[in-house]
Records
---
Amino acid sequence: MADELSLESEFDIQTIRQQFPILDRQIGGKPLVYLDSAASSQKSDFVLDAMSNQARTAYSNVHRGLHTLANETTDAFEKARELVRSHLNAKSVDEVIFTKGATEAINLVASGLAETIKAGDEIMVSVMEHHSNIVPWHFLRERFGAVIKWIEVSEDGSLDMESFRTQLSQKTRIVAVTHMSNVLGTVPDVATIIKEAHDAGALVLLDGCQAAVHLEIDVQALDADFYVCSAHKMYGPTGIGALYGKLDILSAMRPYQGGGEMIDTVTRNGVTYNAPPHRFEAGTPAILEAVGFGAAVEWMQKYVTPDARAYKKAVYERLAEGVRGINGLTIHGTAEGKGPVLTFSIEGTHPHDLAQILDRYGVAIRAGNHCAQPLMSHLKVSATARASVGIYNTLEEADMFVQALEKARAMLLA
């Protein structure tokens, strides 16, 4: 297994960076400046070693074997579940389901709640949601006659709480909102949303893909019914994420898929289902990815300190301050308390062109609609550019980004 994490008394950006081998790369002869962590974050040696060592020394299928390798692999798999539980502060590991990612987690919830939805029932989502937290609810609209209600976004990118309150009603069955916008960085007042939704008799799902890496999460304190996240946003591997759900709700939901592990008994005439979480984990799981997920959480619990968060915020502020002087540039999302995501447009340029030119200078950003077309329509743009900060980014990299962006703008508007 991976070596134990070394103890560090203070945050040191160079100590962090040395643990991410990909940061030594050069792109076109320029040092890599990776500002695309909101799409997918890089992985530390601790995570890579945990996965590799598991595969090399103690790999088998989980849960049903009786031999040593099966038992060791099961222990590692379930240790990862416990680490995710602790990161979210769920009450029990039985409330933590491994999924392919947040997308599958939301689809699982939508499918599991489908039988409770009848024509005219309302599902509330916000305009700033990722498509993964929109499309599964459209399935319930198409198939069961649910009505989707949209929570509007204010001019600064904050969630319009008045829009939420005026539309919340006794017909509301589900409120599905982001805990941090992947485009605007906005952190809505989810605690108030949950309380008021519960008072109206509705369930609440939080999309925590961005928040789970930037904020301290406590699903019990929030009283969330469901919470989803993806490992690859949390310095872990792709292909795995987690769904938290309150145990009583999960126990009443039908399985999302059928197969091995999720059953109790199978006969010619019927089937009974396993208890959560295994009820929702049909088939052989992503074992090594789960080990990597657990290692990423363990790494974060050590290194994502208040000092690290403060430094990450300072890097974002350096980015934002640096671009404010660029003619024709608009920052999308300036709500107070937002996360370290800088989304912007430059008049007379296309975000794709900006991203391609920045790549020549070694700077990696994201360009497009960021799987948020309703939000793009609200912003009256077809696409935007986005620079997102990870724990490994430096103040110097922020300056390099601004310099490269100024050169890109000059080239495109020459």
Note: The two ends are 55 Å apart (CA to CA).
---
Amino acid sequence: MVWLHIRRALISMGLVVLVSGCVSQSDGDAGAWFAYSEGLGPTQDRLFICHGFGCIYRSPVRYSGRDTGHLRALLARGRASPAAEREAIARAVAWNERRVAPEVGSADDRGGLDLHNAHVRGQMDCIDEATNTTSLLLMAQTRGYLRHHTVGRPVSRGFLLDGKYPHATASIREKQSGKRYAVDSWPRGNGKAPDIVALKAWMSKDY
């Protein structure tokens, strides 16, 4: 089971790792990630939530005007500065995980490396988490809810040959400085705030 999960993770991330060395040099096209992950990109009012590890399952969740209004209000609290917006993004990602949980069955999604839950509906690995966070942030960006950041393509680190387990995360770029940040909701369970850290620091960290 462990090897099967590793193999699927490598297939899911393979193009990202091989083509761009963990995508550490450029943002790339965030929308192109959905071709790599075999996921479905966000629409104006719907996200396709990945779960089951490696985006095996994709559950459509429609967002009402009340939902998008709440998302806008959460992100508006960060308009004063880039740092404030990153804090607002963390709150929005946590809110979204709670929002989709009843429809996806992910309320008890466990954080971190949890291979025995592979292929279990509602459980998410880093591919699922990176895809879902990117979907949410793209929806927010399209609607004009982000002032200080743009959404990047998910990035990855580790490919076994370097002794590290493959791991992916969503990413954002600060407009003013060009500095990139990981938005990583994988280490914690459902509805918890993600780690938002400088991408360089994230790339060097072992979980």
Note: The helical segments are 2-20, 33-36, 65-76, 82-104, 126-142, 199-203.
---
Amino acid sequence: MKSSKGVLRPAIVSLLLMTVLCGVLYTAAVTGIAGIFFPAKAEGSIITVTLKDGSRKEYGSALIAQEFTEAKYLIGRPLGTSNLSPTSTEQKEIIEKRIDWWHNLDPDNRRDIPSDLVMASASGVDPNISPAAADYQAERIAQVRGIKVEDVKKLIDKYTTGAFLGIFGEKAVNVLKVNLALDGLL
């Protein structure tokens, strides 16, 4: 029969070895490679703007949603996730409240509200909305800001990305980038 020292030593050595390999070396290698080949993404895709006085300001990540609720801005998906069934009464009530919110924000707009404006994304922090959701808001933004609808739509088009490799996913509009452009910062 082995002593407890003979059984514990290989387990402790294996734990330490795997911790160094997986927790330190692997992490450092992946971070280093990402920093070389994808530096902006490795740093979090932070949108930094040079202001008129020459100073630089960070506004957020292009990969994580920012909450906008003012009528002068493009508004993204609701933040947060839900594990409610799509057919549950509670989920229906939440969506009805969101629809009411949109109608209160833009009472003249009686078009159908795109689903991504009333339902949260799976991650709960999706920074993008569909082109239909952006188009739904263009007239309101133009009216509140006193600019042409075509100018708002040009900015939306400018910050719309296509499907990955032309076939995976759908077109998406980055809400933060459009809003920074509307404020004249991009």
Note: The mean pLDDT is 89.
---
Amino acid sequence: MQVFALVDGNSFFASCEKVFRPDLTDRPVIVLSNNDGCVVARSKEAKKLGIKMCQPYFQIEEFCIRENVAVFSSNYELYANLSGRMMSTIASQVDCIDPYSIDECFANMSGYEGLGTDLTQLGFRIKDKVFKDVGIPTCVGIAPTKTLAKYCNHLAKHYGGLKGVCNWLDLTPQRQAKALACEPVSEIWGVGRRYTEHLEKMGIRTALDLARADAEAIRNRFGITLSMTVRELQGTSCIPLELVKPKRQQIMRSRSFSHLVCDKDDLLGAITFHAQECGRTLRREGTVAHTVGIVLNTNPFRLQDVQQQAYPCVGLPYPISDTNTIIHCARRLLNQSYRRDFLYKRTGVYVGEVVPKGAVTKDLFEETETEQQQIICELMDSINTRYGKNTLCFAASKLGKGTWEMSRARLSPGYTTCWKDLPRVGPLLEETVPF
């Protein structure tokens, strides 16, 4: 029988901030979005204070000071590193995993029961191992389908009596029905607001109502996706583990500015920075792109300003992955699209028609990337991997950086990604060598 586990980091961003800060163990913690705008993560202590997700920080700033809430800017480098450690730890305990997002993954538990392994105890072992080795608290949901595993994870997270692990197979049919009946249909994976509105009009209000619905009738009205959800709730696995992720057909790197930008050189700096990221991603994934484009947007909410929402793109005569060519194309598109005195809020770079490098058929008369360009790019990648991101970069990426760079005034140290931010224990004492 197929058995899945869904392992999810609790309040992941906030938990990452607590790993190297024991003084924050019982203190409310929130993490803010880009440019320190809205709340995107809350510790359990912050949730108890009534702080809502996506709440603008300026509305609760005084409240956070009064309640001694620790507030952090998003430290994506730290979160990605701890996520990788968490995934590696989970993978060491099971046959294989299928990462679903930065803070959760599905794990294959099929066959373990036949070897005499208690799946619930295996769930607790994974939970304890991740907390011991990484410092991230997790919950584990175990079930014969991905949708039920996700639902069990939700139950494990919200019902303290389960102690962080919920195994669907441990429940009697009566308890399974009760577990489904205690949550609204909106808590089911893949059932969004629109689905919820239509389902409630049909009298389907709880997860149990949806599990007892006719899958074919749901398919006729809503399509195959929701029909698969119904079958999964009924115990039939329709969504397998994705052990090999499909390659992306487009890669985009963009970011909103902390302040409105009108200077062309400042925009060029941001464009160059994002182009470097696109090139690095292409080479890391072993792919090449046939098109290069840029994003150039003003703020649509400032109705008093002249607006521009530009996404110009250029096709390439041959597929590329070298950063220099991407920057050259992006710069040309910027020159064509830039309007003086416009106030820009966001810019970025994207590469399209992305294919594996080995799938490209070379033309005898077609120009290709020079060997020297490829060597330079690979050398830069290796140096940046060893000594830190953007140790080597294109000079234009430094233009106006203080103007367009994302505002992260409450950024925590890069404990695991930057040498100078390594945690220190006590003062450094000089010792005299006795020989």
Note: The longest strand covers residues 250-261.
